[in-house]
Amino acid sequence: MFEATHVVPGGGVQAWAEPDPSQPAVTELADGVELRVLEERGQWARVEGSNGWTGWVDAGRLVARGAPDAIGAGTSPPPPPSGFVATHVVPQGGMPAWDVPDGSTPSSATLQSGTQLRVEERQGGWARVEGSNGWTGWVDAGRLVQVGATGAPVFAGMGAVPTPPQRCPSCGGDWGPEPWVCQLCGQVNGLATGLRLSSAGKRFGGVLLDVVLSVLTLGIGWLIWAFAIFGRGQTPAKQILGMRVVRVPQQQAASWGVMFVREIVAKTLIGFLVPALVGIVLLFWLLWDKRRQQLWDKVVDTVVIDDPLNALQPA
Fold it and tell me: 304 partner at 20 to 30 Å CA-CA among 3, 104, 156, 197?
């Protein structure tokens, strides 16, 4: 029986596969999610979710279940205490924060939209900010929303300069010409931190593995396996390699019907309609496609991401 010991605080927390902040986070847990602490190692805690998922998080950011901070997790930030004078607020959509002004390192926190902050120091395009609870960190100064003389935020269109495009929460870089995906690390905009486009090499490996599995199971075994997991946005090879097909507009795992069209209908039609040489070219299409899509991806508007922890597995 699952008994939660802690909850995720407002703004959410990032999670890692191992207690190593030099590695990229694999997912971001939403505020209010209930967790059970299984192990503590220094400042790290290995936690388990109600669905059996496990990962490592910053133990200091967890809120003990039943503590005052745990009540109403996920709601708007509380008003700051007297004596704290905010100079800026976090913009809509929230923003990542770092321990040091270096966007090449993983972010250490995600600040909730509307959180009031005080700028303590500026360094280039970075600002060291303090929260009403004494927390400090570094953020993209250009994304902060200034508080007016009356204490009300001054948004773009009311005399303030519009904020620059959002930065990728995984690597801190600009989203680039394709704002739905980071051109530096492949993070998909709108998905949990760590859900990135699968590499071309991994995609080709998945195609080869599906072929091998199909041969070994005489085709029928692969079909039975595939039909059983199409609803998760996976093929047998993608399940083994921790990959998942995602619908771009909905930003969720592809449904069984979409997977059937992509894997059976689209691939079969393309295989019959195009000559072998053209088929080989189409197989390598993803090498120059900005979304790393193959032709059958474009038929149903999907992309393939790495999801080893099943963060997007349908309920």
Answer: 104
Instruction: List the CATH number of the domain containing 53.
Output: 2.30.30.40
What single letter denotes the amino acid at residue 294?
Answer: Q
Measuring CA to CA, which residue among 271, 251, 211 is closest to residue 235? 211
Distance linking the first and last C-alpha atoms of the chain: 19
CA dihedral 237, 242, 248, 251 (to 10 degrees): 140
pTM of the model: 0.47
SS3 category, 188: strand
Tokens 């991806």 belong to which residue? 297
Does residue 87 share a domain with residue 55? Answer: no
Strands 302-306 and 243-247: antiparallel
Domain shared by 141 and 43, yes or no: no
Residue 257 CA to residue 242 CA, distance in Å, equals 21
How many domains are contained in the chain? 3
- Does the structure show a pLDDT above 80 at 166? no
- Shared domain for 97 and 63, answered yes or no, is no
pLDDT digit string (tens) for 76-111? Answer: 444 544 567 888 888 776 778 878 887 767 777 777
Domain limits for position 58:
6-70
Strands 116-123 and 145-146: unpaired
- Determine the Cα angle at 308 with ends 304 and 311, to 5°: 85
Distance, C-alpha 281 to centroid of its chain: 31
Same domain for 12 and 94, yes or no, is no
Mean pLDDT of 104-122: 79
Of 70, 95, 120, the residue that ends a domain is 70
Return the DSSP state at 144: P
> Residue 281 domain-assigned?
yes
